[in-house]
Amino acid sequence: MLSRTAENLFWLARYVERAEYLARTMEATLRATSLPDAYAGKTNEWESALLTAGIGDAFYEVHQEANERTVVDYLSFSRDNPSSIRNCIENARLNSRSVRTALTGEMWDTINSAWIELQQIWQCGVRTREELANFLRFVQEISLRFDGSAYRTMLRNDAYWFSRLGLHLERADNTARILDVKYHMLLPEKEHVGGPLDYYQWTSILRSVSALTAYHWVYRETLKPWLIADLLILNETLPRSLASCYGNLVRNLDQIGVAYGRQGAAQRHARGVRNRLGHSNMNDIFQRGVHEFIQEFLADNSRLGEIISKQYLL
């Protein structure tokens, strides 16, 4: 496979996954801001949405205040934000057109129809919370249809493996950022752990990664920070956990290595991160510091993206 084709497939999957992540983040934020102050607290949930997306500094270069109107516009439609949902879907379509023959008809139809419908939504505008909720659900359904069509229709060859690399690399980054904001930035220092604010913020985090039901199935307890961290970091049965993402990254990199007849730095780095996750436990992570652990993971994850690019995509 040409490196250019592999790069387009890799980034196509990343853009679709990023759009879904932003939609989930805004949906959770909408739910949190709908709560009474006694439950929601005085934190700026819209600012926390920017922090989880990692674009707080860029946002304040364009806007002075983080509120529902400015943040929704910036995350959804702004041309100034390279990671806005509109730009993600548009870039996904551009990548799809470049590798049209490497995609199945179902995958192309999903991305192309999503792009066409997104133009109509943008032109009409999103004026009410109901319209915004429908738009966010639409974006999530795009990702589900695209992921499902890829899983059910693609040959298990290098085209599929490179697209899965992009998906799981992006997913790991998103989950880590959500968890980092909760532990390090979101909860006020004076707020009682286990109080109403704490409970609803944790619920919001779990909803952002579709893990609230999974949490109750696995632990059968009320929401506890260390159990939620365990689920999102170390539980391989949760598709969006860091451990699950790296299990999939290692498997797909190994498949590429076998197909191309050689291993490389990407395989070694991914296995190293997976092994560290496999040998970690929450007691050690809490003693060391969740923020420090996640920051190291984010650096490792970013480094893997760079190594994959140098090894296969340039």
Secondary structure layout:
Layout: H1 3-33, H2 37-40, H3 45-53, H4 56-60, H5 68-76, H6 85-98, H7 105-124, H8 129-153, H9 158-186, H10 196-208, H11 212-219, H12 225-233, H13 242-260, H14 265-278, H15 282-288, H16 290-313
Helix pairs in contact: 1-3, 1-5, 1-6, 1-8, 1-9, 1-10, 3-9, 6-7, 7-8, 9-10, 9-13, 9-16, 13-14, 14-16
Brief write-up:
With 314 residues, the chain is mainly alpha-helical. Helices cover 76% and strands 0% of the residues. The two termini are 12 Å apart.
Tell me what the structure shows.
The chain is an all-alpha fold. It folds into 2 domains: 1-153, no CATH class; 156-314, no CATH class. Helix content is 76%, strand content 0%. It is built from 16 helices and no strands. It has helices at 3-33, 37-40, 45-53, 56-60, 68-76, 85-98, 105-124, 129-153, 158-186, 196-208, 212-219, 225-233, 242-260, 265-278, 282-288, 290-313. α9 packs antiparallel against α10 and α14 (265-278) runs antiparallel to α16 (290-313). The longest helix has 31 residues, at 3-33. The two termini are 12 Å apart.
* Uncertain stretches: 190-194
Gross geometry: globular
* Count of separate structural domains: 2
Number of helices: 16
- What order do the helices and strands follow? HHHHHHHHHHHHHHHH
Report the radius of gyration as a whole number of Å.
19 Å
Strand content: under 5%
Number of strand elements: 0
The overall pLDDT, averaged over residues, is 89
Helix content: over 70%
**Computed structural class:** mainly alpha
Q: How far is the first residue's CA from the last residue's CA?
A: 12 Å
